[in-house]
Amino acid sequence: MTFPMTDTKLADRSAALSVAMPVLTVAVVLILLPNLFGSNAMISTLNYLGTMAIFALSYNVLLGQTGLLSLGHGTFFGLGGFIATHAVLRFVEADIAFPLALIPLIGGVGSFALGSVGGWLASGRGGMPFAMITLGLAELVAAAATLFPSIYGSEEGVSMDRMDLGSSFGLSYGPNVDIYWVIAVWFAICAGLLFFLSRTPLGLLQNAVRDNAERVEFLGFSARRVRMSAYAIAAGIAGVAGSLAALNVEITTVHALGASTSTLVLLMTYIGGTRHFFGPVLGAIVIGLMKIWLSDISPAWMMYFGLMFIFVVMVAPGGLAGILANGRALVRSAGFAPQSPILAGIAIAGGLSVAGLIIVIELAYRAGLDAAKGAEISVLGLPLNAESGLSWATGGVMLIIGVIALRPLLDRLDGKRHAIAQAGGAK
Amino acid sequence: MTHHDQSLVTAPLLSVENLQAWYGKSHILHGVTLTVGQGEIVSLLGRNGAGRSTLLKSIMGAVTTKGAVRLSGRDLAGQRPHKIAHAGIGYVPESRDIFPDLTVRENLILGQKPGGAGLWSMEDIFDLFPVLRTRADTRAGVLSGGEQQMLTICRTLIGDPDLIMIDEPTEGLAPKMVAAVGQLLERIAARGVSILLVEQKLVIALDISHRLYVMGHGEIVFEGTPQALLDAPEVRAEWLEV
Amino acid sequence: MGIEVVTFSVVNSILYGMLLFLLASGLTLIFSMMGVLNFAHASFFMVGAYFGFEISRRVGFFPALVLAPVAVGLLGALVERFGLRRVHKFGHLGELLFTFGLAFVIEEAVQMIWGRSPQDFQVPAALNFTAFTLFGTGYPAFRLFMLVVAVAVFAALALLLARTRIGLIVKASLTHPEMVSMLGHDVPLVFMSVFGVGSALAGLAGVIAGPVLVTQPSMAAALGPILFVIVVVGGLGSLAGAFVASLLIGFIQTFAVAINLKVADVFGLIGVTQPPAAFGALLSDIWNVSVAQVGPVIPYLLLVAMLMFRPMGLFGKRA
Amino acid sequence: MYKTCVASVLALMSAGVAMAEDTFKIAMIDPFSGPAAVVTERIEHVLRFAVDDLNARGGLNGQQIEILTFDNQMSPAETAIQAQKAIDAGATILQTSVSSGNTFALVEFVQKYNRRNPDHQVIVFDGASHDPAITGEKCSYFSFSWVLNAQMKTAGLASYLASRTDITKVYLMNAEGSSGTTTRQAVIDMVGAARPDIEWVGDDVHPLQKITDFTPYIAKIEASGAQAVITSDWGADLALELKAAGEAGLDAEWFTYFSTGPGAPTAMAQSGLNGLVYSAFDGDAGIQNEELHAYEAAYRAATGGLSASAFPGDTSAIRALELAANAAGSNEVDALIAALEGVSFKTVYGADAHSRPDDHQIISQMAISRFVDVPDGALDEEGTGWGWENVAIIPADVITLPNTCEMERP
Amino acid sequence: MTDALELRDLRKSFGPVDIIRGVNLSVKKGERHALIGPNGAGKSTLFHLISGRITPTSGQILFEGQNIAGQEPAQIVRAGLSRSFQITNIFPQMTVLENLRCAVLWKLGHRYTFWKRTLGLVDVAEDCERLLHELGLTHRRNDTADSLTYPEQRALELGLAVASGAHTLLLDEPMAGMSHSETEAALRLIMRVTEGRTLLMVEHDMGVIFEMADRISVLVYGQIIATGTPEEIRANPAVQEAYLGTAKEEAA
């Protein structure tokens, strides 16, 4: 009997390949992006998305990888930002030539250290107690921050000029695109580190704690230490993200470590999908773009966040990444062709109900909150009027027809899939 | 001890047909078929892990199942537990899930169906088991094991079931109490309530049952009268004895 | 601190604590029954205030006091039936996330309908007088009314749970839901009702607090976290614990304000009047911190300490 | 996965919003969501009313003005992000009004931006945030403040209180944060200097916008025997404490800086604090002011009942901008700044005002008014039937303080 | 030679209820020792006490001479005593291979390593392959644990206990819920993978017990009422009474 070691090596090689491909893709995309989108606004959007992507990835070490719901992850984003800002200010004051691009290292290490302390406090148990204790710690830090204006600034925060540290690595750090490169490199480093982590014994144990913390104890490990490590690592990477945000906007305020930051990262990560490594990145991009652009177009953007989040929680716990992955698997599967008419029907019905919902929500905002802007409004290209029954009926009917049509279509899809599975089984 | 005449048992009150059950992904019941007649005491024997408790829970609708469960001809499979309870099946679990923080009386009140007294009033219950009357207003949690067992049976009984399923009522009881439980069951059956009893103590089962089933590995491996089981030592050795 | 301040602080602590309890009672009821830490609870409170406002300006405050909680309760029941119950299969994390998203949506919906400005929700004329005067300060009758309602709710809840058949079913479902359903009680219906009643309690708190605090979209976010502190400190699921913790938080927050003390004063006692310059700005920050400023921090310190050292809370039985 | 990520980015990015190219763009960077959005809403109305009027008269040197709105979510950091977006959308003037913190962030951002992009500079307008540092230590050549700052208003308050010798016991009530602490210090310094006999019977610094029940504070004020409270609180804090005061029947007088803001009039009217709340404000918003009355009537007719006078800075900004553009004959940034320095105009209250060239601070008279139950048909606030009654006009020279700005000029 | 495991007057009560009422038991090194008893006798509680899941009220648990009573489960496992669970307790969303990897990490000294890739650890790979083979799960290596059949899950459950390298194993009803043929296979598997180790196991299938156990202890009502060879136990009237009720002879 020979042990099939070759299997492992083969798996290894294909794993290496499947690692190399994404790495290359990510690198190429990161290099291409600023060249494709040269405008300053695009670059600053990319910068924002980049920091949020790192932040969301860090959060997923807790939520996805270790199964821990933290309600206070924003704390470390904010603390990282403050550490970085103060580091820059101190270096400038002391006239030390520290390369600006390496400042996130300081923010990251600082947050990691603070995260280790917080992790020690919070990691006794998982689940609800963990969520509550992280909420408590976050509120504690946020409430205490106002007591120390010399560290946290007052409501105006602490600001700095990133150019004061001078040039390094051939970058002056004046133009936003210089910061883009810093963020891109740090994104690559953080994503790489976290990806590597997920492939190490510690990463494996974090998964094990997520799946069954008690059993981990009966294998000789301390679940608390595993949680603590996840908490500290997540805190450290969040600190890097916070530092980058500080370099990007050159100002850090107590808002950064408040509840809204913690909520945002939870939304991004969960909507993106916690079970795929790059799911949180997808979430950060989608939510980030919604936050930046949708807020200009619609007053209801927060409402859409909330509804999207509830949709994901109720219907698609795999998040957007899960939906995409399932979709891809479906398209590649043999059963796709016979299902496709029903799927198309579902897409139409779903699209109709979403469009109807959007119309109703936009009309409702225009009738209520934004009544002063006048009743006329254009939604999805349709000229509507918040005072016209016809407009409301349009949205309402679309929504109702869509929802009514969905039910039998979904049933038929189930039936079809069942039939396909049985036919497959018969073969 | 008189054994009732089999012929008295007409169309079955409860009939279970080819019942399969799963816990998560593990298949526990592999197609169980059995019947319980009106006023009949039927015992379900077998070693731990044979699937007897799962069978009771499946009938009660607490486990995902496939197959048919009929009470007086009415199909109950797939119904939620409280519907099945309303239909007339009572269940006394092995774990003796009394509500320890409530008083004895409160425990019994919870067993009553809303509106209308049935076959059993509170007084009937107290008559049946006088200790409960004396301890009516004490916390159920402080009762002895035997008293708790009585209470669980009475709590289900007061809900007026046509069929009562009892899981190992004599478990962990002192020998004196074991006998008392046996008598109680017979008195219940005497009022026309059918009993499906899961029991490990062969003696009790042989003593009070009209018919017996033996389960092993999620299937019925023997069906017959107590005498038939006494006449089948190989069944006892294979499926029951130590 | 003068005797007036102490007297007033005690009265205010109790009042504030009672308002918190009105809110926390529903939350703790829901948690103890369903294990759901309802992040949308404060949102139901807010919806209660808005419903109360709308109803009271049409048919008066006292009908609103009844109708608004009922409406909020129905809303809660619907949320349980069509939302929470469906995410139950994803475990408590899924339920928590659901309520989290719900809180988000409710806040937006409230803004969508009523706008962002505070609503002009007034104390009803019948209760708009001074109940009594103490040390020259009038005590508004409405606050007294709040106290009465809170105590009445506590008593009614305690009575309902302890003395009625429904209370027995609820209490038994808490520990043995399977057994209760096997005795013929529709436990999912019980859960739905409990969620509805819990939401209705929040709605009631909203109607009562609406005129006193300001009825505005941020009123949920302002009270949310402190509710969790109460529920955790009191002992998850313990009504009595929530009662005591509400009072405790009421006292902490009120007395922190009442105590005129700064860190500098403490140092002043030992003869240090200026912060040693060597320690820089941070120390001068600490120097200027007053007890009133620390007040909001204390509940969270309590929360963290409680979770670490006594996870079952003051009165809880289970960790 | 990556492909899909990238694809979604590309798709969304290409869907960028097209902007009209030929307008003069003013970007409002303010909280359009969250609790402070209610203030922004009011300001937006005021600004749009002023701009519509100007556009109707031909615009700025013939160019129509377009208002762009950007939600900074009440966060200074987000302000910087939105400022970049505003600039890329072609905005020439970035205006922020709500919260000094955001204004600081915007000024700093524009300072850096203009330094790094000398070919494409922009101007900051501060429409309502009143921290003296905006035109003091943090002043900028590129930024103009169109409201009186806290120090000026405090000077005015001090001058009024000098005549109120009946008040000797005063309680200080301020929130944490720079706005509260600087105002508190200014009050202690200036009012203290004007009225050395005043005893500070209380001095609370409370958490900002976190307190839901101010009754304990009111009890303290009552117990302290204060005859007056001076507070720089705003928004919910102010509304809640006035409500609590009304409920407790506290008969102390309130001297406030922000009681014209949204919610406060409603709270005051509800609490029945008739004539007890004073406002130290940029102008005479009182019922006696005829000039304002005409303006308000037109405004309220157009926007549905709310008052414009609560936010005079935004109207001042547009008026000054119009005059400056006319004077410069150009809408270019350099020319506009040069013309804005020292520009003279009239505020909505009909008072003369000018922008001081040294620090770009508006200089105008101010008023102390109190909130009373006004006769039917008079100017009321928030539909309460209550409105402002002027008790004192403080001339501009009384509140003009020495310049502390060391402005870097290009 | 000391016993592998010795319990001295071990007691556990939950509130007023005594569950374990003074258990004395010794398991010799290398012995296969079965623990039987009716439901509710406290067998699982006893296992929980030994493995550190709950702490005893009083008494001693000597593992190779050291008192381990009150220690954390992880400490006990590191000392060389590991267990399996009656209700399958594996990592449901991880693959079989990952399950086993977790289990061998501590033994091989990799512990909380975060600087090496798991796939690069040759010793882990070899050990897991060996275990997969022994457990008969090689073809299922990349399937998630929750997709396994019940007997496969039980095999993995056993595998996790064995993989930790402990030389004393507590197996709690390893065959619970299996069909007859499955039980046979499981028994052979257990015999194979526990070769040379000390074994204390709870089991209900008497066929299994008599086939494999060197000695049997009977736990009734929180106390050990008998210990002996299978034959001794079979002949013990007290045991028969505990199991089948009073006076079996009379009924027969």
Note the topology.
The complex is a heteropentamer of chains A (427), B (242), C (319), D (410) and E (252).
Chain C: H1 3-34, H2 41-59, H3 61-87, H4 91-114, E1 130-134, E2 137-140, H5 141-163, H6 165-175, H7 177-182, H8 187-212, H9 219-234, H10 239-258, H11 263-269, H12 280-288, H13 291-294, H14 298-309
Antiparallel strand pairs in C: 1-2
Helix pairs in contact in C: 1-5, 1-8, 1-9, 1-10, 2-3, 2-4, 2-8, 2-9, 3-4, 3-8, 5-6, 5-8, 9-10, 9-14
Chain D: H1 2-14, E1 24-30, H2 37-56, E2 65-71, H3 76-88, E3 91-96, H4 100-116, E4 123-126, E5 143-145, H5 150-161, E6 169-175, H6 178-194, E7 199-206, H7 215-224, E8 228-231, H8 235-248, E9 253-256, H9 264-271, E10 277-281, H10 290-303, H11 312-328, H12 333-340, E11 344-346, E12 352-356, E13 361-364, E14 366-373, E15 386-394, H13 396-399
Parallel strand pairs in D: 1-2, 1-3, 3-4, 4-5, 6-7, 6-8, 8-9, 9-10
Antiparallel strand pairs in D: 10-14, 11-12, 12-13, 14-15
Helix pairs in contact in D: 2-11, 3-4, 5-6, 7-8, 8-9, 11-12
Chain E: E1 5-14, E2 17-27, E3 32-36, H1 43-51, E4 58-63, E5 66-67, H2 73-79, E6 81-83, H3 96-105, H4 122-135, H5 150-163, E7 168-172, H6 180-193, E8 198-202, H7 206-212, E9 215-220, E10 223-228, H8 230-234, H9 237-244, H10 248-251
Parallel strand pairs in E: 3-8, 3-9, 6-7, 7-8
Antiparallel strand pairs in E: 1-2, 1-4, 4-5, 9-10
Please, could you describe this protein's structure?
Chain B is α/β, with parallel strands linked by helices and 242 residues long. Chain B has a single domain, classed as Rossmann fold. Chain B is built from ten helices and ten strands. Chain B has helices at residues 52-59, 81-87, 104-111, 122-128, 130-134, 145-157, 175-190, 202-208, 226-230, 233-239, and strands at residues 14-23, 26-36, 41-45, 64-71, 74-75, 89-92, 163-167, 194-198, 211-216, 219-224. In chain B, the strands form two sheets. Chain B has a six-stranded mixed beta sheet with strand order 6-7-8-3-9-10, sandwiched between helices. In chain B, helix 3 runs parallel beside helix 6 (145-157). The model of chain B is unreliable at 1-9 (pLDDT under 50). The two termini of chain C are 39 Å apart. The mean pLDDT of chain C is 84. The radius of gyration of chain C is 21 Å and the shape is globular. Chain C is built from 14 helices and two strands; from the N terminus they run ααααββαααααααααα. With 319 residues, chain C is an all-alpha fold. Chain D is α/β, with parallel strands linked by helices and 410 residues long. Chain D folds into two domains: 2-149 and 311-363, Response regulator (Rossmann fold), CATH 3.40.50.2300; 151-287 and 367-399, Response regulator (Rossmann fold, 3-Layer(aba) Sandwich). Helices cover 41% and strands 20% of the residues of chain D. Chain D is built from 13 helices and 15 strands. Chain E has a single domain, classed as Rossmann fold (3-Layer(aba) Sandwich), CATH 3.40.50.300. In chain E, strands 6-7-8-3-9-10 form a six-stranded mixed beta sheet, sandwiched between helices. Chain E has a four-stranded antiparallel beta sheet with strand order 2-1-4-5, with helices on one face. Chain E is globular and about 55 Å long. At the A-D interface, helix 1, helix 2, strand 2, helix 11 and helix 13 of A face helix 1, strand 2, helix 3, helix 4 and helix 6 of D.
